[in-house]
Amino acid sequence: MIRNNRHKYSVSAMCEVLQIPRSTYYYEAKEHDTKEEDELTELIIQIFNENRKVYGQRKIKKELKKKGWQVSRRRIGRIMKAEGVVSKYTIAQFKPQKSTVNESDVGNVLDREFTQEQPLKVDVSDLTYVRVQQKWHYICVLVDLHNREIIGHSAGPKKDAKLVQRAFATVPYSLNHLGLFHTDRGSEFKNQLIDEALTAFGIDRSLSNKGTPYDNAVAEATFKTIKTEFVKGAVFSSQKELDLELFDYVNWFNNIRIHQSLDYLTPREYKHQNQLERTAI
Questions:
Q1: pLDDT exceeds cutoff 90 at 13
Q2: How many CA atoms lie less than 13 Å away from 79 in the CB half-sphere?
Q3: Could you give the CA distance from residue 43 to residue 188 in angstroms, rounded to a whole number?
Q4: In sequence order, which residues have a C-beta less than 8 Å from that of residue 189 and are 6 or more positions away?
Q5: Cβ(230)–Cβ(246) under 8 Å?
Q6: What pLDDT, in 10s, does the model give residues 176-194?
Q7: Predicted confidence (pLDDT) per residue in 35-76, tens digit
Q8: Residue 172 pLDDT exceeds 80
Q9: Reduced 3-state DSSP string for 173-197
Q10: What residues contact residue 81 under an 8 Å CB cut-off, 6+ apart?
Q11: Taking Cα atoms as reference points, which of 273, 269, 256, 264 lies closest to residue 62?
Q12: What was the pLDDT predicted at 29?
């Protein structure tokens, strides 16, 4: 009672009315606060560990709110610091050199229109590297600009067109529904094998301008996320292990991980919400 009304009345006055020694109240209040702090600390660590140790204060605050906790970022940060909980995003990332670009006359059709209202209208792609034993292997993902969902993915020892082709093979939707495919000018994306596949399914083509990474900013940002959350510090024992772990990560990325750019929804939640809104119109 005293705790619930201390914003209106003085603690001393309420203790006097209730004939409770102030020392008893403060002792019980301190004990209550300690239990609450312990429970909050345990919950923060649980949220952090369940989300691949990548969530920072903002996302942990959102997850706590879902569980009925209103906690400031400052308090979350203090607890994380005290517990030695450090997001992978606090460590700088290594940036590999870009490969030689091709001179295709295909233009930048996308023109940085990264906000897309319709699912599958525009999909972007990029590659990154990962360590498998003592060798470099590569990861390719296809990202839907509508909801940032990873709709296709692949991994392998060679950075070539077949890696991209295998990513298309994992797309769970009809490829005829894809409208535009945008990438940088890496030779693995612009070649006869990929051109024939896109033509077969009626998918239009778009390439970033030469030496302009911002033309493919969403794919670049997605791979920065993947490098931090999935690749960083990882050494896989085999291609099979990499395939299994990548599959698991993509499932988490699409269905569990909340995204700040999607108003802290998952890609699937965002897509479902927008489908309901369009149906209601």
A1: no
A2: 24
A3: 44
A4: 125, 161, 164, 183, 207
A5: yes
A6: 999 999 999 888 988 899 9
A7: 888 899 999 999 999 998 889 999 999 999 999 999 999 999
A8: yes
A9: CCHHHCCEEEECCECCCCCHHHHHH
A10: none
A11: 264
A12: 54
125 phi and psi, to 5 degrees?
-150, 160
pLDDT, one tens digit per residue, over 90-121 is 654 444 545 555 667 789 999 999 999 999 99
Highest mean pLDDT among 19-23, 183-187, 241-245: 241-245
Alpha helices, DSSP H, located in 93-139: none
Q: Computed over its alpha carbons, how large is the radius of gyration of the chain?
A: 25
Contacts of residue 149, Cβ cutoff 8 Å, sequence gap at least 6: 143, 254, 267, 268, 271
d(CA 191, CA 205): 12
* CA-wise closest residue to 240 among 133, 129, 127: 133
Amino acid type, 183: T
Query: In one letter, which amino acid is 174?
Result: S
* Residue scoring higher pLDDT (89 or 181): 181
Residue 107: beta bridge partners?
none
